[in-house]
Amino acid sequence: MNLSEKLGFNKTTKLLMIHADDAGLSHSENRATIESLTNGIVNSYSIMVPCPWFYEMAVYAKSNPQHDNGVHLTLTCEWENYKFGPVLPISEVPSLVNEAGFFYKSREELRRNATTEDIKKELKAQIEKAYAFGLSPTHIDSHMYSVGINTEVMNVYRALGKEYDLPVLISKEIMRMSGLDPLVNIKEDDLVIDRVHYGVFKDFETGLLQEYYSNVLDKLDAGLNMILIHPAYNDDEMKGITINHPNYGSEWRQIDLESFTSEEIKERIKKNNIQLITWGEIKGLWK
Fold first, then answer.
1. Are residues 256 and 231 in contact, defined by beta-carbon separation less than 8 angstroms?
2. Where residue 88 sits, what CATH number does that domain have?
3. DSSP class per residue in the chain
4. 3-17, 27-41, 45-59, 267-281: which has the minimum mean pLDDT?
5. Which of 7-16, 132-141, 251-260 has the lowest mean pLDDT?
6. I need a surface site. Which of 123, 158, 208, 224 has the fewest CB within 10 A?
7. Strands 195-197 and 140-142
């Protein structure tokens, strides 16, 4: 029996989770995430615990338990002028920060400098902070999939899921993106998303990002699918955060917001007989 059948669907059902990353990153990101949940078709999101706007989104999450949410485990900060670091004191996880005390900008810097022990301590602290605030996460995932820097860290990520009884986001596409070989790093008992879809810079650069999302829905395969987006407003705050970073920049994030609150996308989901599903529904089957 495949996952669709375990969830009570036919094995040919097209299951889809539309997931918003990076809640807590900024006020703009929070506002857009809430908009996409309440007036759009986004049905899952995850919160960046170390970020300055975590508190605002965590308050919303506590007040709106009907919306599926997880912990967006964070070990990198890619922005030029907007910085944040670990939730633990730097003295406890010194290998995770640069000379200024902030997270490294890239997975490669993290791979070169971080110890597995410091990573484990920090990721556990982020999950604990979410629980201490009163959140009830349905899953854990990873910002920039930094848990994919090597097999050891991937095993830490997987073990944290087991410890907290939470499914973790694992997919072949995202593993390859982070530099890990799925053939080596996916285990037999992993809950694997069959297909994860996300826009790439070429789609944005050529003005075809919305078209890409529409094509994904028209060509969706049976099984468990996910579309990853990053909704925010193209306002002064996000322009400042994403300066000199058009890849997943403020303009891109505005397109994500508009795409997944549009009537056209809602109709396309109906037309293609797509069944929306959340981590909360999957969580009960994950052991």
1. yes
2. 3.20.20.370
3. --HHHHTTS-TT-EEEEEEEEEETS-HHHHHHHHHHHHSSS--EEEE-TTSTTHHHHHHHHHH-TTSEEEEEE--B---SS-----SS-GGGSGGGB-TTSSBBSSHHHHHHH--HHHHHHHHHHHHHHHHHTT---S-EEEGGGGGGGSHHHHHHHHHHHHHHT--B---HHHHHHHT--HHHH--TT----SEEE---HHHHHTT-HHHHHHHHHHTPPSEEEEEEE-----SHHHHHHTTT--TT-HHHHHHHHHHTT-HHHHHHHHHTTEEE--HHHHHTT--
4. 3-17
5. 7-16
6. 208
7. unpaired
Domain count, the chain: 1
| Domain encompassing residue 92 | 3-283
Separation between Cα atoms, residue 1 and residue 64, nearest integer Å: 33
Inform me whether the pLDDT recorded for 150 exceeds 70. Answer: yes
Residue located via tokens 């920060």: 97
Radius of gyration of the chain (CA): 18
What pTM value is reported for the model? Answer: 0.96
Residue 79: CA count within 13 A, CB half-sphere? 20
Rounded to an integer, what distance in angstroms lies between the CA atom of residue 186 and that of residue 168? 12
Decide: residue 86, CB within 10 A, 0-12 exposed, 13-18 middle, 19+ buried.
Answer: buried
| Residue located via tokens 């990076």 | 22
Model confidence at 1, pLDDT cuts 50, 70, 90, reads: low
219-276 pLDDT, tens per residue? 999 999 999 999 999 999 999 999 999 999 999 999 999 999 999 999 999 999 999 9
The pLDDT value given to residue 3: 72
